[in-house]
Write a structure and sequence with these properties.
With about 280 residues, this protein is mainly α. The chain is about 60% helix and about 5% strand.
């Protein structure tokens, strides 16, 4: 079955698009669950909105049961599909010619970025991903819950950027892998080295600094290898001084909000996430 076998020219811009049948099929499955409606009801409502029959809508899915795939009639119909199911007219339209992959990704990358942002934003309220926000432990397995959140981001990347150059998708999947590592590390800072290089302030939350201040003898024994415990890095005198200045500043700014240290760390993580996206995608 050839899905990308018809092009649609957009009036005004002259740009040509393919219809993304795979993503359309996925949204037809997800939308009813998200809105607590039957799939048949959604298809019927969508048909009325777009002036097409339910059977016609089903024929547009990539995996309809009768294996009789049909392309939508025109680009306006596809835009109505996108507006209804994803609140985005271009949700199911793939440019035939991507002159600049990063320009194209700009339209949808905000949605992926938002998913990453939401993941990290529950760090504090979930007590470092050890509890379920707004839920009791008995309602759902914690590990499965957070693994599914990350899996959902991966699914969205693979579907949204199915027809983009591999380089672009690989960038997003690498960020996803790094996020998985952080979420499963249960340590501070717990991020990969590349994140710490992009934002060195992240390392100020490493426990090594607290040990230097509260237990210098223990620190020195660990430093020279007289313990099975290992530090991720050995702070320099400049690191110690810069960290002191850093916390003096944010504690002063924090007098109004009175954030916990976990929330301060979360804020720094979000800044790092933004820096990672900009450094890898805005070239």
């Amino acid at each position: 079955m050839k899905i990308l076998d018809k092009t649609y020219k957009e009036t005004g811009t002259g740009k040509e698009y393919y219809f993304h049948a795979v993503y359309f099929n996925t949204r037809l499955k997800e939308f009813p669950k998200e809105n607590d409606r039957l799939k048949s009801e959604v298809i019927e409502t969508l048909g009325k909105e777009c002036y097409v029959s339910p059977d016609t809508i089903i024929s547009h899915t990539a995996y309809n049961s009768e294996k009789k795939y049909r392309n939508p009639l025109d680009i306006d119909t596809i835009k109505k599909f996108g507006k209804f199911l994803s609140n985005n007219e271009y949700a199911f339209l793939v440019p035939c010619k991507i002159e600049n992959g990063l320009d194209f990704i700009q339209k949808d990358v905000e949605e992926i970025y938002e998913m990453f942002y939401e993941l990290i934003s529950i760090y504090d309220v979930s007590e470092r991903f050890n509890h379920l926000p707004n839920k009791t432990k008995d309602e759902e397995n914690i590990i499965i819950y957070y693994r599914k959140l990350v899996d959902d981001v991966e699914k969205e990347i693979n579907i949204k950027y199915l027809f983009l150059p591999d380089e672009i998708k690989d960038i997003l999947l690498k960020i996803l892998k790094e996020t998985r590592i952080f979420m499963s590390s249960y340590s501070v800072p717990g991020v990969v080295d590349s994140w710490m290089e992009i934002n060195p302030k992240i390392k100020y939350f490493d426990p090594v600094f607290d040990i230097i201040e509260s237990a210098p003898d223990v620190y020195n024994r660990i430093k020279i290898g007289q313990s099975f415990v290992k530090f991720r890095f050995i702070p320099t005198e400049d690191d110690i001084e810069q960290r002191k200045l850093y916390f003096e500043k944010i504690n002063e700014e924090n007098e109004l909000f009175r954030y916990s240290e976990a929330r301060m760390f979360q804020n720094e993580l979000l800044k790092t996430l933004t820096a990672v996206f900009k450094s890898r995608l805005c070239k």
